[in-house]
């Protein structure tokens, strides 16, 4: 009996898909009728329709994303890339469930929305690491950029000084994206605290509310992160072409950035009275804005799940005999030591940069490969363990390059 169970478990890849489909189908057959009967008893109001329709889209999006995640875990052959892809794929289930819960209880939506906002920053971070790891696996990224023509700034920032190609360019883009990873969770925490203090004023564009100030900070931070992503893509467009970057960029920008501005537009239209609630109370206006945003997100996450299925497909990583342990893949997915290391590095670099500028020194006076302020700049200090025994990026020995050049002379 025990040997039969062990044999069955060892063959889990063959029965996990039908079990997953069957479990999800049974859950739908049980919970959907229960909710329908409950809604009919309540008179099937407009809010019930929103929850039902939004729930259908959300709960279609979730299994599509879950299945893509499972396939990446099964075919976990490129850990340095797939770990970040899996984290990005988790965005759709988190957004979809979050939006549906906001429809169910719009009055407390701010608290669950904070989780979604924090994950926005996490997605941007993982997309950045995914691109850096891909390029560093193929080449010496900084040395490659040094021999390229200068990448000019894009309108409307054409007047800014050029970012010197090489290490300065990579680090400026990297830390321009990392700042969003720090600022977005911080503003989310501040928003919750302001809401508890009664001064948040969600959706209110007035000086006495905290909402417009937090909105401006988030907007600026997102703009900087998106601009750095575009500049990085512009500098490495030819090297990134084999991994088909455009659909991936489009998915990230559409889900993370466009949903943010969509929410801002909805808040503004409700505040100006273009979209009118059933009653004139301020609470009803806030609830209407939240419900409309969450309803649209439920629909959009269904589309995003399909887009992610093609943009971040598992198929390029199907290498017979090259799969890692699924336990290894699962644990690596939840290991966030790289995030902690990079955020600590970012805070150290920003603090050191401000200090050097005050003293009138350049921010990039340290030779490549040696960073006295942040020795983990290219390689996070991740302790060896069961599922994380090497860092995501690569340390490059530039002394060999220098010695070779000297000998050639």
Automatic annotation (TrEMBL):
Compartments it resides in: Membrane
Keywords: Membrane, Transmembrane, Transmembrane helix
Recorded GO CC terms: membrane
Main location: membrane
Tree of life domain: Eukaryota
Transmembrane segments: 19-40, 52-73, 85-103, 210-233, 254-274
UniProt cross-references to InterPro entries, sorted A to Z: Ostalpha/TMEM184C
Membrane topology: Multi-pass membrane protein
The protein's name: Organic solute transporter ostalpha
Source organism of the structure: Henosepilachna vigintioctopunctata
């Amino acid at each position: 009996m025990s040997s039969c169970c062990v044999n069955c478990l060892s063959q889990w890849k063959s029965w996990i898909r039908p079990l997953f489909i069957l479990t999800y189908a049974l859950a739908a057959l049980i919970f959907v009728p229960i909710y329908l009967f409950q809604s009919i008893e309540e008179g099937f109001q407009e809010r019930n329709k929103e929850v039902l329709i939004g729930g259908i889209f959300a709960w279609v999006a979730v299994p599509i994303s879950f299945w893509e995640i499972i396939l990446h875990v099964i075919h976990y052959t490129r850990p340095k890339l797939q770990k970040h892809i899996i984290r990005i794929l988790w965005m759709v289930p988190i957004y979809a469930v979050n939006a549906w819960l906001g429809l169910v209880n719009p009055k407390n939506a701010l608290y669950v929305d904070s989780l979604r906002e924090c994950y926005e920053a996490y997605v941007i971070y993982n997309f950045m690491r995914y691109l850096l790891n891909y390029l560093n696996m193929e080449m010496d990224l900084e040395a490659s950029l040094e021999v390229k023509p200068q990448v000019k700034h894009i309108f409307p920032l054409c007047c800014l000084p050029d970012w010197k190609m090489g290490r300065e360019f990579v680090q400026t883009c990297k830390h321009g994206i990392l700042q969003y990873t720090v600022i977005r969770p911080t503003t989310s925490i501040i928003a919750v605290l302001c809401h508890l203090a009664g001064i948040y004023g969600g959706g209110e564009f007035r000086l006495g509310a905290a909402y417009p100030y937090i909105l401006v900070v988030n907007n600026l931070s997102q703009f900087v992160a998106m601009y750095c992503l575009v500049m990085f893509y512009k500098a490495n467009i030819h090297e990134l072409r084999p991994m088909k970057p455009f659909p991936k960029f489009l998915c990230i920008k559409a889900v993370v950035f466009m949903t943010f501005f969509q929410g801002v537009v909805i808040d503004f239209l409700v505040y100006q009275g273009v979209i009118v609630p059933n009653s004139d109370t301020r609470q009803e206006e806030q609830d209407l804005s939240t419900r409309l945003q969450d309803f649209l997100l439920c629909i959009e996450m269904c589309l995003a799940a399909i887009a992610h299925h093609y943009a971040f497909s598992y198929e390029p990583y199907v290498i017979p005999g090259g799969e890692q342990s699924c336990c290894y893949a699962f644990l690596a997915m939840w290991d966030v030591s790289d995030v902690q290391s990079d955020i600590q590095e970012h805070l150290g670099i920003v603090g050191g940069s401000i200090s050097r500028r005050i003293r009138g020194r350049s921010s990039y006076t340290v030779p490549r490969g040696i960073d006295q302020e942040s020795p983990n700049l290219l390689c996070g200090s991740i302790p060896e363990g069961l599922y994380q025994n090497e860092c995501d990026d690569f340390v490059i020995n530039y002394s060999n390059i220098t010695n070779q050049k000297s000998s050639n002379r």
